[in-house]
Amino acid sequence: MTTSRRDIAISVLQYGVGIAALAFLLSQVDVGTVSARLRATDPAVLVAVVLVTVGGVLARFDTWRAVVAPFARIRLLTAGRVDLAVNFVNQLLPSRLSGRLAAPFVLKAETGIDYGDATAAAGAHTGIYAVCYSVVSAAGLVAVAGRVSTGLLVLLALSTALYLVAGLVVLLAGMNLTVLDRLVGFLAALAEPVPRVGPALADRIRAVPNITESSADAFGRISTDPRIWLRYAVGWAGALVVAPGARVWLLLLSFGATVDPLLLPLYLVTAYSITLLPLTPGGIGVTEATATAVFVGLGVPEAAVIPVIFLDRFLGVYLPALVGWYPTLDTDLSVL
């Protein structure tokens, strides 16, 4: 009971910090001025923002098709349901990686592939995502070095390094899942004496090696196939680099601010890398604050960057997460 209360308290604190940070940022925005600028924006620009956003979302959907390709051919719509559902769960849990624990269950439910293959596909998706993110974020670190505070640069460097470590660990562990056998035996022995539920729980734990063996083989096939990496990287770049970069550039122009359009996507990836740290669920509030600090350091007026970053996060993260609630209605998330 004590642990449960502690976990609840930590979650409440994390949500509180995120909401407080977001509320503070929004309090610095003149809503009337922002609304007036949006109304005065050329309709063609707004249409372009919508098209870029849709294109980015579709590119993100295709990253799931890339990792599932060795097991099944799935429609883009099916991949979209998987992505949206996982994104929805990501916003409920403190870390982006912890939220991806839901992915195997969602994949199995949506595609019909067995749990071992779903685990491999979900793990490979997480690992490749993290590696891609770390590489691009590192390039962004070089671009912002000397232009933002040392403390902020260190924080961004830490989150970038964590992305690289997390990606490599996931990929290496995925190809060697059978090393968990001893741990599984130990946990099963601990569970066995538990009254009433112990034997059933131990049986489920002992079944894990069967899953991990098949997952390790499938994981190896995915993570060593350059065609999968290439297809995934193209979708990832479209969703995390091209679409947000174009969207923020268009919005900044509409607010009378300018940033180098070639470096802007790198700035964004680096500024948003803070989402990996389990500071708030989905990085809400803290991500916007960090990104604002980065762009203010780059010389973008605070009055322009705050609403633009909020709009970008809303269109690229929060709105898809809200839509992701719908496909989860058909998925039994109690297994989490």
Report on this model:
- The protein is an all-alpha fold and 336 residues long.
- The protein has one domain (2-331).
- The chain has 16 helices and no strands.
- It has helices at 2-27, 31-40, 43-68, 76-90, 96-99, 103-111, 115-144, 150-174, 181-191, 198-206, 208-223, 226-254, 264-271, 286-297, 302-323, 325-328.
- Mean pLDDT is 79; it is low at 94-99.
Q: Care to give the gist of this entry?
A:
The protein has 336 residues and is mainly alpha-helical.
In this structure, how is the largest beta sheet organized?
none
Order of helices and strands: HHHHHHHHHHHHHHHH
> In terms of structural class, how would the helical and strand content be classed?
mainly alpha
What overall form do the CA principal axes indicate? Answer: globular
Write the SSE topology:
Layout (H helix, E strand, L loop, with lengths): L1 H26 L3 H10 L2 H26 L7 H15 L5 H4 L3 H9 L3 H30 L5 H25 L6 H11 L6 H9 L1 H16 L2 H29 L9 H8 L14 H12 L4 H22 L1 H4 L8
Helix pairs in contact: 3-4, 3-7, 3-12, 4-6, 4-15, 6-7, 7-8, 7-11, 7-12, 7-13, 9-10, 12-13, 12-15, 13-14, 14-15
